[in-house]
Amino acid sequence: MDIEDTSADDLSAVLDSARRASTQWARTPRSLRSAALDAIATGLETANDDLVSIAIEETRLTEARLRTELTRTCFQLRMFAQYIAEGSYLDVRVDTADPNWPMGPRPDLRRVLLPIGPVLVFAASNFPFAFSVLGGDTAAALAAGNAVIVKAHPGHPTLSRTTADLVTAALDETDAPERLLQVVFGTEAGVQALQAPAVKAAAFTGSIPGGRALFDIANARPVPIPFYGELGSANPVFVTRAAAEARTQDIVDGFVASFTSSSGQLCTKPGVLFYPTNTPMHDALATVELPRVHRLLNSSIESGFDAARRSIAEHADVETLTERHDSLATEPTTTLLSTTATAIASHPSLLHEMFGPAALVVAYESDGELFDAITQIDGQLTASIFGEENESIVPELIEQLSGIAGRVLWNQWPTGVSVTYAQQHGGPYPATTAPTTTSVGMAAIDRFLRPVAYQNVPQQLLPHELKDSETAVRQTRDGR
Amino acid sequence: MDIEDTSADDLSAVLDSARRASTQWARTPRSLRSAALDAIATGLETANDDLVSIAIEETRLTEARLRTELTRTCFQLRMFAQYIAEGSYLDVRVDTADPNWPMGPRPDLRRVLLPIGPVLVFAASNFPFAFSVLGGDTAAALAAGNAVIVKAHPGHPTLSRTTADLVTAALDETDAPERLLQVVFGTEAGVQALQAPAVKAAAFTGSIPGGRALFDIANARPVPIPFYGELGSANPVFVTRAAAEARTQDIVDGFVASFTSSSGQLCTKPGVLFYPTNTPMHDALATVELPRVHRLLNSSIESGFDAARRSIAEHADVETLTERHDSLATEPTTTLLSTTATAIASHPSLLHEMFGPAALVVAYESDGELFDAITQIDGQLTASIFGEENESIVPELIEQLSGIAGRVLWNQWPTGVSVTYAQQHGGPYPATTAPTTTSVGMAAIDRFLRPVAYQNVPQQLLPHELKDSETAVRQTRDGR
User: Fold this and answer.
1) Alpha carbon separation from A289 to A279, A286, A314, A330, A356 (Å, rounded)
2) Domain A237-410, CATH 3.40.309.10 — does that match?
3) Would residue B74 show up in a list of annotated catalytic residues for this protein?
4) Which residues on A lie below 8 Å from B223 (Cβ)?
5) How far, in Å, CA of A363 to CA of A383, rounded?
6) pTM exceeds 0.90
7) Domain named Aldehyde dehydrogenase: which ranges (chains A, B) (predicted)?
8) Where are the domains positioned within chain B?
9) Cβ pairs bridging A and B (under 8 Å)
10) Chain centroid to CA B229: how far?
11) Is the ipTM of this complex over 0.95?
12) pLDDT (tens digit, 9 = 90+) per residue, B124-138?
């Protein structure tokens, strides 16, 4: 498929349509929005063989991985469909009038979350389904009641166009407004859309430099808009002394499987592992057999990986523990690098993400050294502990890691982010540009909603979820 | 009191203390944090006569107004104290492990909101209690579990210092960490604090240019932080035809009382009123007697008001309907200006905020003209309708106004913002820089919290609110 960049004229039509569609969609009852999300999921499922084969062609990812990802994508749509039908996400708060309120008579106040308006989503390269045209950001924004414009990732243009066409066909069978989801192509169109007054929020998954550039554009607008960027993360893993002794091989094998999964192209790839000296860990890491991995997504990812890997590997305090380079020049060099916690304390840039199948292992002598290193760690999506329940270091470790990461794991690997009610995929910068939010899980919908309170508005003029007669949606009344 | 600007050395000590205090405060049980907030309220109440007399001296506001404001400030602290003791604000979500989760086995995931870290609060001039040292932003940030640094407003330095000292004395009697609340003075110290790595979020109430400049600094940091700015708002009022005929004098009198209250120095002052032609409204507005008002807060506000008032009054499409200038040259000229909806459609800048006792009334011929004008209105804190329940225009008017304002009022005036569970004080830019949040009401606490999910963490290592045994805090389990 030959897909041209979106022209300025076409973009203008896209923006106008998005504005109209968003207004209409916001007024569409939740039950119908819910049904439309289900219809999209069915549309994608029905075409799954076609979608997966296009994705294999364009992304070099494996069929098994892509099928799982498509399942996740459809599951996510259906979960949001249920979630909005149920309605507690509206966070309805009703304070009835109270003449005896201690700060003076209180008016009747009723608060609800309304759709924020057209949302621009920048698709990622590494999840051609789950973080692309119909990925998590799009699902959350649509569920919230907004039209969506997706800036397609150049890594999978045909898949992007095909997905969008399937969605449009599915939505045509529902009560959804026309052009509710639209796709634009090209960097220029993406930047222009981000600057357009019609766009009220934007979401992004990708690299730190790319995300930061777009964040800066969003904030420099005459009318700035929320920009939800999920950028980069090293996802450090911390192995305690007891665990290092009790479960050496299990931990090493799990680590290698996790950091090489999808050729290491996962935002939650565990890129750094801290382990105690004088345990069998070092030898086990040095002698582990690295698996063969598949090619990286595209040449830009390839060169980025190579540069990141080299810059850390060539540091004076880093040695290459083991690497695997298969005969095909097209496959990346799977690499395990090694350094010490004292080196990290002086050179925190050693912790920078290497997007691909490489990781750095860090030897620490003492708990004090470990905690010193932690103070050097930037914001992270995840931090994982492999430990034993009764070790004295553990409570403080959990406490410290909850200060730098959005998700803290115990004896599990961070790859494979489940879509659930309680999931949190976020973290302090540079993990994300919006540390108070999540981009995976049901709470992701909050990013695309804005609160409005109605004061003294008669019952028949209120949105029905705010009325006294509402029984389906949970209302917090007078704080209870 | 002679108060010098905070030096760079002193600021450095403030930042170090804030970091330490924040860590300690975050670990302080909610019951003790709650008790400390109550103790602050008691400390302020006990000193209320002193505080009010200093405030009268420094702000020119009336004693009655200041006493009400101090009551509100203490009430707000006590309400947050109750709110955090109850704990539902933690938004606890528990998803137990589920091997049959449709997208693949689900791990045990438990999500909670944790304190974001030290918060910098820029105090406002117009509310020397409620939006200053111990105002809403500070109360919300402390309640959330963060240390606070307040950049004092130069309009009331002695009051700022006195308030901070009272708070410190009150906190010394509790288990709160040392230097939990600190005050810095001077523009340079404020900017440096905003750029400091120790500061994790900032809040501001003030003018559009001032707030925008700080917003830009917060976003330009190597590690950007959330900036919650409440800037400016014209708070338009819409009088329907039926209301204009039925309640002319009531509406005009209420309008004048509301826009001249506190000499018009309120962020929710109704600065613009739309009314239908061919009703008694015009004559009632032209002949209304404007009340005498007191001096504005300071010379900077005085010159700003004068410039804003003149720039609109001198526009070719604007006439001065009535004005009052009292003998004292120090009092502002209370002013009612008049224009038409068609003029607004061409010149939306006529709707810019005049911070002081002036308002613009706008005549509209038809409903269509009114809706055209609404499309020109920027983001607002509030929008008010004076109408009759059965008028056909009303549902669409509510719908449109909920799209541009954070609070929509029916037959009430927007001044006097009650602190309640459902209050919403926010809105699209330029009303605020963070349209998904509020700066008044219990939901204001959300701005200073960040979510963390714990995966597969054993019961005894979890924060107690996430444990299965927790009975005091509401948990959403498996989405229910």
Assistant:
1) 19, 9, 22, 20, 17
2) yes
3) no
4) 378-379, 428-430
5) 17
6) yes
7) 3-274
8) 8-231+432-477, 237-410
9) 244
10) 8
11) yes
12) 999 999 999 999 999
